[in-house]
Amino acid sequence: MSTHPITRAVEKYNRTIEQAEKERTRAFQEVANSGTPQTEIIEKSGYSRETVRRILKPEVVEAQKARRRKT
Known about the structure:
This protein is mainly α. It has 4 helices and no strands.
């Protein structure tokens, strides 16, 4: 780990964002698995349909990216 204050701040910020995204994903998946419709998740979160889809099904997004890279 770097000792420069700016580098440390950026690294801490990135770790915080990563952790928050993991928590958001877990919460969304938990709600979806309990039977909440995706439309309700969209409404409650304020995120677009596409963003909610990316959060709930990251494997689909990765597969699409992989297919695009092959072409």
